[in-house]
Automatic annotation (TrEMBL), chains A, B, C:
It comes from the Bacteria. This is Hydroxyethylthiazole kinase. Catalyzes the phosphorylation of the hydroxyl group of 4-methyl-5-beta-hydroxyethylthiazole (THZ). Belongs to the Thz kinase family. One of its GO terms (molecular function) is hydroxyethylthiazole kinase activity. Keywords: ATP-binding, Kinase, Magnesium, Metal-binding, Nucleotide-binding, Thiamine biosynthesis, Transferase. It comes from Brachybacterium faecium (strain ATCC 43885 / DSM 4810 / JCM 11609 / LMG 19847 / NBRC 14762 / NCIMB 9860 / 6-10).
Length: 268, 268, 268
């Protein structure tokens, strides 16, 4: 399965990449799932605004005192190791436990693992709780599978294809889907694999677009029972929004604004 | 008292809703009050940028080690239970105590109370310190008064009118004003009540606009001695800015940008 | 040395203030330095987005458990006392120690020191570790040198020129450069002094532009060995971007967006 960029004459609504995932987008917009996000402090606003633009609803409590309780209200959970505050460090394990107990879908985003001494073992431990979807860049997937040193910060020094084996190995362990973000994105589970050659070079020029993809993936898992299709829908959604935004942007600042507008507009 | 949407031919500067509150807006712009905000991490930037756009000045320290001391510099205090970090949990009670001791106006925004086990009793306890204004959505006011279960996350599942009795009950306890945000906003104190049927459906599509309203209310209480009029001014200010932004926006991302521009422009 | 505003007919690329610092901007864009930032929570997003727009790469872990380890990956470190969470309070000293040990350039931004009881002594203690550049407003520099009470919040109640002696005193202690931001900016070290009369009145109307200047300064120190020239380059970069943004903006919201676009565009 492969999504290629259409010719310039194709209307956005007729984009061939959109058709297979359009029902997932429509379900998010109709059901407005409540997504509990424990995410990097730096990306909280774009994650929340991106979820709202997509039609979902964010919730962001992260302390051990409150996060496990309020996650019982959520339709899905998104765990991003981002800046990993002490509050998040303490709150994440217990919150995941509640989501697993209640059978809620959840997404793990092992941001910036590698040499970081707390998040790296934490991410590997969370894989044992079998996240519905794992989303990361290639370096993070390689580090998660134990076959690479990780990237520098939130960057990836590897391509998504280079992490295909590591991603497949993680998917075998979780029984769910894995999405590897990059210039070409890779989404896979035990049986299927899709390459998505869409998006914009401006996406990594805005902080938190990867974190947003993780949360958007959680929103899609809340409304669609197939983790692979949910992860693919989120990836295509953000990529198409990125293309629409890039067509209007005059730089990374305006791209960020248009991206949020486009998340709302894609496929309508 | 009731503010209705004017016809499309009315110039913004002549908006009839603006006249009664224009002196409060002018005073904020002239006095540039320093507003100490302990607010949700996710909304810090829009709160700070919104205050700056309105002509006020934000300050955001929240630890117990520093917040009570630096709040002595502030002209007003805004307490929002938002993401409620451990730092904020620890810092809020002592900071409120200093504001009360010094006779500074302060606003309580009981964000997302209901089932959350720390913030819900904390909000009720803070009401005993008699906030100048309580600002929340209907579900939060119902939960604060003990007559409703709260919403899901920062959403309200009730209309402002449905919370009128709860809001009046809270106002009797505090002796101040209460503002209930919704499609129609309600502002009241022991003697007066105003319905504000203005604003934009895009306001709840941007994270932190409610938090911003709480902080803007604090800015207004810093320059105007009547809590009811200050709360009403802030509500009208944000609603009119929201309408002006909606007229220019092509989605929630551009709406957020235009909202900040409009907070600066309304009534000038 | 002094940079004056050129006439309106001058093309941005021919701006005379740009020529001396253009090689530094080019080096940031080419080398994409990884800048580890421990910064105010409220300004994290604009700092990260600003670094990305400028061509650098941000990293934002701040706990004592992880920050000292991951800073070994960074090309420069930016320490901003901003909201100073407990995590940052704990993480900053050990992280600075690693940067000093490894000979990495680092920037100290003593935000809002004055009466704040933790950050004020911490800032003075960090000066002893000889930051490559200290960047602050006039009130902060006066408080750092022990000759002024500090400002109110992140504001300065003094002009940069009024802090010239204090800045020179700090520079003598660190052996590095000091940048004092204001309507006119001052950059100096033990031997040189530059006044930069550029920028826009809208810069202080957006939260975190000062924090961004500190981080941008760190990015410049990562690619240029002379702290004075690196600090001057960052100051001119932000000021020229501010002028370009102001020419397009219709208020502080749109200014923020155009500022990020302009950081990407200046001098290209």
């Amino acid at each position: 399965m492969s999504a290629q960029r259409p010719g310039p004459s194709t209307a956005p609504s007729a984009d061939p990449a959109l058709a297979p995932v359009a029902p997932v987008l429509a379900a998010v917009r109709e059901q407005a799932p409540l997504v509990h996000c424990l995410t990097a402090t730096v990306s909280m606003a774009i994650v929340a605004d991106g979820l709202l633009a997509a039609g979902a609803r964010p919730m962001m409590t992260e302390t051990a005192a409150e996060a496990p309780v309020v996650t019982t209200l959520a339709d899905a959970l998104s765990i991003n190791l981002g800046t990993l505050s002490t509050d998040a460090m303490d709150g994440i394990p217990a919150t995941v436990e509640v989501a697993v107990r209640d059978g809620r879908p959840w997404v793990l985003d092992p941001t910036a693992i590698g040499i970081a001494p707390v998040r790296t073992p934490l991410a590997r431990q969370l894989v044992e709780s079998r996240p519905t979807v794992v989303r990361g860049n290639a370096s993070e997937l390689l580090a998660l599978a134990g076959t690479g040193p990780g990237g520098r910060g939130a960057d990836s020094t590897d391509t998504a294809d280079a992490a295909a084996d590591a991603a497949a190995q993680v998917a075998r362990r979780t029984g769910g889907a894995v999405a590897v973000s990059g210039a070409v994105d890779l989404v896979l589970d035990a049986r299927r694999q899709a390459r998505v050659d869409r998006g914009s070079e401006l996406l990594p020029r805005v902080t938190g677009t990867g974190c947003l993809l993780g949360a958007l993936t959680a929103a899609c898992t809340a409304v669609h029972p197939d983790p692979f299709e949910a992860a693919l829908a989120a990836t295509v959604w953000l990529d198409l929004a990125g293309e629409a935004a890039a067509a209007r942007a005059t730089g990374p600042g305006s791209f960020r604004m248009h991206l949020l507008d486009a998340l709302d507009a894609v496929g309508r």
